[in-house]
Specification:
39% helix; globular; 337 residues; alpha/beta
Length: 337
């Protein structure tokens, strides 16, 4: 049975000097579920640190009862803007295994490099990254909106992209997320070979759920009256490409970027031409800009969640549930038949 808990950063002090997965050398002790309280990890569990929720979800689902998972990005914190404190940096050094996604959180990328934990996995290396939304504007198929936006926004967005200007939001495509899941499963098998069979089974189960989710999106979005949607920032490039949609973002890859007056005017024209009826905003970012754009164009607003964190405002308890809510929102906004 998969566990859902966060371990405190003080745990596993004995594993720091080893810097390797040597669980059998640890003395068994009872772990505490109390948030932020002092506790020790059971000797047969792998201490995993995940950078933010999509990585946490993979670690928990694949690791199951053989891992204790903590996350650097607490619920409700916008991961793009995360700055690490001293305690979080120490937490990295105490980990047996680190799972992160390079290109989303610059501060985390630097701290993980400094931590030097041998079993460190970059999810971006487990699939192929692509360019989406490298400038504010159009994302669809092989078109990357090069005709839209200005140099100022392009430079602003680049700070939030992965290597070579690529889009790091791979988890919003269930197919790519499944590819990453397979890689994570294989890496956990190598890190903790005694529990390899369990990791392998959990990986297979998760990939099956993600495949089912992919089928639901493909079927649900196949017959919509429009293929264009407007959202706060360019998080949904992979999803749009996977299901034949066109993403038009108010900002670029950075959720905090401010659109220019020219972009607002352009979105008004796009909405009229493509029969767009809804502007989507996110749960972890202010909805002010989205509502302003919607009011300016006479459009409705709704939530399209990039699933960067789960809070009480999330329309679902985990990744799959929130993605199903996203599908329902897209079907409604795009006029699914």
């Amino acid at each position: 049975m998969n566990i859902r808990r966060l371990i405190p950063t003080a745990a596993l002090a004995g594993s720091v000097t080893l810097g390797l997965v040597a669980l059998s050398a640890c003395s068994p002790s009872d772990a505490s579920d109390g948030a932020g309280g002092a506790a020790e990890k059971s000797g047969d569990k792998l201490a995993v640190v995940a950078s933010f929720y999509p990585m946490q979800y993979l670690a928990e689902e694949i690791g199951g009862s053989h891992v204790d998972v903590s996350t650097l990005t607490k619920p409700g914190v916008e991961p793009h803007e995360l700055e690490l404190g001293t305690r979080q940096a120490a937490q990295l050094g105490e980990a047996d295994y680190i799972l992160y996604l390079k290109g989303i959180q610059p501060a985390v990328d630097e701290a993980i490099t400094a931590a030097g934990v041998p079993n460190t996995v970059d999810a971006a290396s487990l699939t192929t990254l692509e360019k989406h939304g490298s400038e504010v504007g159009h994302d669809h198929g092989d078109e990357h909106g090069e005709e839209h936006g200005g140099e100022e926004h392009a430079e602003e967005d680049h700070a939030h992209e992965g290597e070579a200007g690529t889009d790091p939001h791979i988890w919003l495509d269930p197919v790519k997320y499944a590819e990453v899941a397979k890689g994570v499963g294989a890496s956990l098998e190598r890190a903790d070979p005694d529990n390899a069979a369990a990791y392998r089974k959990n990986t297979t189960d998760l990939v099956e759920r993600l495949t089912t989710l992919d089928s639901a999106f493909a079927q649900g979005l196949a017959g919509t009256s429009t293929k264009t949607f407007i959202t706060t920032h360019s998080a949904f490039g992979y999803l749009a490409e996977r299901y034949g949609l066109t993403q038009e973002s108010i900002a670029g890859l950075s959720p905090e970027s401010d659109p220019s007056p020219a972009r607002i005017k352009e979105l008004r024209s796009i909405a009229a031409r493509e029969k767009v009826g809804t502007v989507f905003f996110e749960t972890l970012v202010s909805d002010k800009t989205a509502k302003t754009v919607a009011a300016d164009s006479g459009l409705k607003t709704d939530v399209l969640d990039p699933v960067e964190g789960i809070t009480e405002k999330s329309k679902g308890a985990d990744y799959v549930e929130v993605m199903k809510s996203n599908l329902a929102a897209l079907e409604k906004a795009l006029g699914a038949k």
